Amino acid sequence: MYEEFFDSKRQEQMRRSFLKIAEKGNLKSYKKNSIIKIPDKKCIVIVISGNIKQSIYSMDGEEKILYLLQGGEIFKEMDYFCGGESTLVTKALEDSTISILEEEVIENILLENPNIYRDIIHSITRKFRIVMFQMANMAFSDSLGKVADTLIRLYYQEGQDMDRGKKINEKFTHEEIAKLIGCSRVTVTRALNKFKDENMLEINNGEIIIRDIENLEKFIKWK
C-alpha cells in the first residue's frame, strides 16, 4: 500500500542531494537524547548523521512522535518557506550531526541549482503523507492494526530487503513505537508478541524484520 507513496529510489536521491550541500552550512553535533534547539532565524537544517525525532507534546507531557529523520533528511523547511515557528520538539535519538544552512546560503544554492526545489518539495510532501497516514491509522484501526500499519509504513520509509525479510533500519523500543502510534506500551507489546508468535515478525534487540508482510497487511482497517 505504501510502496507508491514512499519510493525508495526517490527518497535516496533526495537524501544524496541534501548531503551534497550540507558542507555549505554550520555543523553542530549533539549527544544521544539531547534536545536540538535551532537559533530563531530563517534556515533549513540537514541531518548529516545519526537519527533525530520530532514530536508534539500535550499539556500533560504526553508525547506523539511525528517524524523520524535520518542522514540526508531535513527539517525547518516548512518554516523557511511558509513562515512561523514550528512547535515541534526535536531530539537526537543517538549521537547526531546536523548542518544549519542560513537564508543567504540557501538562496545562493537555489540560484545555482534550482533542482534543489524538487527535493525540498519532496521532503514537504513526504512529511504531509506521513502525518496523513498517521491520522488515518489512528482514526480507523484497532490496536493490532495500528501497530501493523506503522511497522509496514516504517519499512517503506526507511527499510531494506534482506534474505530473512523486510528490515526496518531504525531500532525501536516498545515505548517509542507506542509514541509513534499514540497508544500504551503494553498495547504495543501485546501486538508485537502476537505477530512474533504467528511468524509475521522477527525482533532482536530492537531490530525489527517483517517476515510476512502480506498477512501483516490484513490487520490494516483502511486503504
TrEMBL record:
Domain Cyclic nucleotide-binding intervals: 44-127
A Pfam family: HTH_Crp_2
A biological-process GO annotation: regulation of DNA-templated transcription
Alphabetically ordered keywords of this record: DNA-binding, Transcription, Transcription regulation
Residue intervals of the HTH crp-type domain: 141-214
InterPro entries: cNMP-bd_dom, cNMP-bd_dom_sf, HTH_CRP, RmlC-like_jellyroll, WH-like_DNA-bd_sf, WH_DNA-bd_sf
GO molecular function annotations of the record: DNA binding
Name of this chain's protein: Crp/Fnr family transcriptional regulator
Organism: Soehngenia longivitae
